[in-house]
Amino acid sequence: MDFDPNGLSGGAVFATVLEGEEIVLKFAGIINRAGGGIIRFIKAISVQRLLDLSVETPQG
């Protein structure tokens, strides 16, 4: 890296994925720690699970 990633925490992570012949941009997660040339992030599936747990489902 040619920059200090300190301060990127909380930012979104995106990935470019090849689907067939098309390049698609997808949400990959959220940065939880950045510094010393290393960026660590929480994967999107874990973020989704946390959001699902934080939202109450209506009782029928």
Describe the structure.
The chain has one helix at residues 44-54; strands spanning 12-19, 22-35, 38-43. It has 60 residues and is an alpha+beta fold. The protein has a 3-stranded antiparallel sheet. It is flat and about 50 Å long. The termini are far apart. The model has no long low-confidence stretch (mean pLDDT 88).
Strand order of the largest sheet: 1-2-3
Principal-axes geometry comes out as flat
Order of helices and strands: EEEH
Percent of residues in helices: 10-25%
- The first-to-last residue Cα distance is 52 Å
Q: From the helix content, strand content and strand pairing, which structural class follows?
A: alpha+beta
User: What percent of residues are in strands?
Assistant: over 45%
**Total number of helices:** 1
Mean pLDDT: 88
**Sheet of most strands:** 3 strands, antiparallel
What's the total number of strands?
3
Q: Radius of gyration over alpha carbons?
A: 15 Å
Q: Return residue spans where pLDDT drops below 50 for at least 5 consecutive residues.
A: none
